[in-house]
Amino acid sequence: MRIPNPERFLSKNREKAHKKLKMSFVYCFEHNFLLCLQGITDFVKTGCN
């Protein structure tokens, strides 16, 4: 199965990941530092490179 437009697909996913990371930071400072670290770990695992 081929992805119609890999470039667009990847940038869309990256955008989602960045949004998730930003939310992790916000949540971190407003609620729980440990949850924040967990979110960052997940983010790094899924990859932003």
The number of distinct helices, counting runs of at least 4 residues, comes to 2
What proportion strand?
under 5%
Give helix and strand order, one letter per element, not per position. HH
Largest sheet, strands/sense/barrel = none
Structural class: mainly alpha
E-strand count = 0
Please tell me the overall pLDDT.
Answer: 72
Give a quick summary of the entry:
The protein has 49 residues and is mostly helical.
Report on the structure:
This protein is mainly alpha-helical and 49 residues long. The protein has a domain at 23-49. The protein has 2 helices and no strands. The protein has helices at 6-30, 33-46. Helix 1 packs antiparallel against helix 2 (33-46). The chain is elongated.
